[in-house]
């Protein structure tokens, strides 16, 4: 679960049938530009796994860090994501040259470009753990700003689409979700190939150039041409903050957010340990890990399509609980894998890693799509950026807590970069923790009825 995978409210593509239907429902020229902007934004968001693959191998092979240190950096680099509500408040409250989404997307892209291009320009001999951490924090700050603005646009337009045409707001959510998945597929596929062919600096430079192109494309678009709904929240940040706090006092808002964040936070992540186990102990090649991540991203892409076509009518509580339970089952399967169970059945380690490990890595985020659709429906008009940013920051904080708990668990079961004897026990503890949130999943509400929403407005 790298930084690139986290935030994921991430989505898009023209191959989605629901996305096509969305465009066919009287879409305006502004709607086309809006989809282009969101498509590029979420595509780049998914593609962030490309440079992060280089970061992980550079830390392991270049700086010789241990599994705990690697996991600490992976999670600490996401600290800027926790401040997303602040970025959301700024986006909702302060307009720059009459625009309150485009400037933030452009600034975030520029900040990321500066960060990655700077990392690429530094000599490998002078690159330290502290230095790369600082620039990764800067890059994730830019990424979080872009994500907040993009998520706000999706929430605004999804609500407008539902109210104006009676269509489901999940259409645009899935449109963006599939775009991010496509970016993830490309990023992991190219990353797995490039890591053996090019230096990490070359990969950082390539990503920085793409971000620079995103910046110039973004500033060339006028927000007026996007046909965004008019926001009633063109007022000060204090007023916007008071509105957000008022919304968060509603049980139907804070209870599911609390459950969703806790469902991640109480699971001790062992991703750093699994990476070392696969590469150091099993000697799995980087290309296999890349294919595994591609398989996972393809699964995410298909999930967006299948959800929109067949699953969006299922109550979110039931669907999210099913995903949580499946995660626990696959974690038990990982424990059997570490024990050598599948090897005795004639299943190669590489095949298991590609299919099961690739699926488990993205299964964490399957819950995000139905949950984000639910929150977009519950989100009051004028507070989209603030509330969705709060949701994503809660998830980011939960992942950070999960990562630190994973470091503590690894220490408890005495896992090192050369000794994995306690790894199976750690995976079983992880699976047990994953089951716990199911006992209070009743706090997740059912879909609010659209008629009721309109009356409340």
UniProtKB/TrEMBL annotation:
Q: Does the keyword NADP apply?
A: no
Q: How does it sit in the membrane?
A: Multi-pass membrane protein
Cite a GO CC annotation. Answer: membrane
Which keywords does this Swiss-Prot/TrEMBL entry list? Membrane, Transmembrane, Transmembrane helix, Transport
Task: Locate the transmembrane regions by residue number.
Answer: 37-59, 104-123, 129-154, 175-196, 202-221, 257-277, 289-307, 319-338, 350-366, 387-407, 427-447
Q: Which compartments is it annotated to reside in?
A: Membrane
Q: Tell me where on the tree of life, at the top rank, the source sits.
A: Eukaryota
Designated name of the protein? Biopterin transport-related protein BT1
Provide the species name: Cynara cardunculus var. scolymus (Globe artichoke)
Task: Tell me the lineage of the source organism.
Answer: Eukaryota, Viridiplantae, Streptophyta, Embryophyta, Tracheophyta
